[in-house]
Design a protein that fits this description.
heterodimer; A: alpha+beta; Heat Shock Protein 90; six-stranded antiparallel sheet; 3 helices; 34% helix; B: alpha/beta; Transcription Regulator spoIIAA; five-stranded mixed sheet; 7 strands; 25% strand; globular
Chain lengths: 143, 117
């Protein structure tokens, strides 16, 4: 792991434990602050990372102690990138029910996936559905 | 000493005012406790409604939102009204993006929330 205020990169496997998610998210928030990201974008990345990593831990790896989540995170000035890969069977994100539909409003399913899409610029899943890439630009940065 | 770990409560006029202890509501174990504590407010409630005051809350995960949905459902079954207030803009966006602002009544501040009960 290397860390500067200009370019920060994290590449490691974390255990399938919620506390590890909180630790990683805390590190990301710290780096975003160092790079001058504003509250709104920081909140969005926080939300997307929290939901994506917890989905990987809970739904992908079923919190198995034998499985890890591979995380790659890069913050290069005004660009955020992350790739989150679990060791689960994967899923087809197109089959997740739309949580904004009235009949789904009170169901637990699909809200996290939907929030990830709302809070970052680009979300890409691999074919298996066990890995996703998130990208976001600092919307408050001067062009 | 409060019987709760994740919330504080206060009776005000016809409402039970609830505030969150955690600034970032994201820890799964804490969220499970939060859910239990919120549901316990419905049992034996004497107030007209519950106001969830989000003052100081900077993050709220989808797992935590699920607990609010359960609270809303149980409140409705028991004839209690539920209001949300004092949400930061980013947290408020969560409810609009997910269309949950059609399920919850969200007010700008605690006074308006109590008045609407």
């Amino acid at each position: 792991m290397e860390s500067t205020t200009q370019h920060w990169r994290y590449d490691d496997h974390i255990p399938s434990e919620p506390d590890c998610c909180a630790t990683i998210v805390g590190m990301v928030l710290e780096q975003l602050e160092k790079n001058g990201w504003g509250n709104k974008d920081t909140f969005g990345i926080h939300m997307a990372m929290e939901e994506a990593v917890m989905n990987a831990i809970d739904h992908g790896n079923n919190r198995s102690p034998d499985k890890t989540v591979h995380l790659v995170i890069e913050i290069c000035g005004n660009r955020f990138y992350s790739k989150i890969t679990d060791q689960g069977e994967g899923f087809d994100p197109s089959t997740v029910p739309d949580p904004t539909e009235e009949e789904n409003l009170e169901k637990d399913c699909g809200r996290g996936v939907m929030l990830i899409r709302n809070f970052v610029d680009v979300v890409l899943y691999n074919d298996k559905g066990n890995s996703l890439e998130l990208t976001k630009q600092n919307s408050e940065a001067e062009a | 000493m409060s019987e709760f770990e994740c919330i504080t409560t206060e009776a005000l006029e016809n409402a039970t005012i609830v505030k969150f202890v955690d600034q970032r509501v994201m820890n799964p174990a804490r969220i499970e406790s939060l859910g239990r504590e919120l549901l316990s407010l419905v049992d034996g409630a004497v107030a007209t409604g519950i106001v969830l005051n989000f003052d100081g809350v900077s993050f709220f995960s989808s797992a935590a939102i699920n607990k609010l949905i359960k609270l809303e459902s149980e409140s409705r079954k028991n004839g209690l009204q539920l209001r949300l207030s004092n949400l930061r803009p980013e947290v408020r966006d969560l409810f609009s993006y997910t269309n949950l602002d059609s399920l919850f009544q969200i007010k700008d501040n605690q006074f308006d929330a109590i008045e609407s009960l």
